[in-house]
Design a protein that fits this description.
Structural class: alpha/beta
Distance between the termini: 47 Å
Largest sheet: 8 strands, mixed
Number of helices: 10
Strand order of the largest sheet: 1-2-4-3-5-6-7-8
């Protein structure tokens, strides 16, 4: 039984997660100590706040249950040959939470300052929540050495999803890209420039980009409709930068939506128990509105 006192190393070493258990948590600092439990997961996320133990437990329980039912919850995005040529690619992949068949998909990229990938707090919970709403949710674990490498990983992930759409049961029309902090930058870059700019075949652009607390200031007429939310006490990503960026996008006629939570710090994830709780409802509504507009063009 998974609970708050479950050892993180027991999750990592669980045979049911063989081959990818280490990617559930940020292990760039090395293997966590044997004494660390799921309740301590926030100690591994130096750039994040408001890490919710109940959410962490829920994610691990759901992943185990899906695996026990025979579901494939992890997809490699690189071949063994590619991993041999670039060993960093061994620490990449897609966690998958299946939703309803023929529903659209979302790829979520957690942040971590391009130092670690905080999936346990900032992408796995989001992908799971989206799957519970019927969407097909993916959480990307990417290379952190450079933003370009991370964008290449997202572009490859999209290629894998499009190539296996029938097997995954996902509708590729009107998909969305999500991210927090560094992950939001990745989503924005690939959303604007497309997969073709990152060594992959050109695929349709996302119908929407959902961004949380990032200092990303670049923008262009190619950016997809963009939703953003951030805390007013964020010492890493100034909310004014995000607001200004969306105002500039709006002048191009691009649909935007901005939410500020005055008392919150950086990295609030789903924001459960905070003033941001429910932000994902707004984000999904924004995505749906723009997905419908995108599908009209097809």
């Amino acid at each position: 039984m998974i609970h708050a006192g479950t050892k993180i190393t027991d999750v990592i070493d669980d045979p049911i997660f063989e081959g990818y258990g280490r990617l559930i948590f940020p292990t760039v600092f090395g293997r966590p100590s044997r004494s660390m439990t799921l309740e301590d997961a926030g100690d591994m996320l130096i750039y994040h706040n408001y890490v919710n133990t109940d959410t962490t437990v829920d994610v691990i329980r759901e992943m185990r249950e899906r695996r026990m039912k025979g579901e494939k919850i992890f997809w490699d995005i690189y071949t063994e040959t590619e991993k041999m040529q670039d060993p960093d690619k061994r620490d990449t992949g897609l966690f998958f939470f299946r939703g309803n068949r023929e529903y659209p998909f979302a790829v979520v990229c957690a942040g971590g300052g391009f130092y670690y990938v905080g999936s346990i707090h900032e992408s796995l919970p989001h992908a799971l929540e989206l799957s519970r709403r019927g969407y097909n949710g993916f959480a990307l674990v990417y290379r952190t050495r450079t933003a370009d490498a991370a964008c290449e990983d997202l572009a490859r992930a999209l290629t894998v999803i499009f190539s296996n759409a029938e097997k995954l049961g996902a509708d590729t029309a009107g998909y969305s890209l999500w991210g927090g902090s560094a992950g939001a930058r990745i989503a924005a870059y690939v959303g604007a420039y497309g997969t073709g700019a990152f060594r992959e075949p050109s695929l349709p652009h996302a119908a929407a980009v959902i961004m949380q607390y990032t200092g990303h200031s670049q923008y262009s007429r190619q950016d997809p409709p963009t939703y953003a939310c951030v805390g007013g006490r964020d010492g890493i990503a100034d909310w004014r930068v995000m607001k200004r960026r969306l105002e500039c996008l709006k002048t191009f006629g691009i649909d935007t939506e901005f939410h500020l939570y005055p008392e919150l710090r950086h990295g609030f994830g789903l924001g459960l128990g905070t003033e941001a709780e429910g932000w994902i409802d707004d984000a999904v509504s924004f995505w749906e509105r723009n997905r419908k507009e995108e599908c009209k063009k097809l």
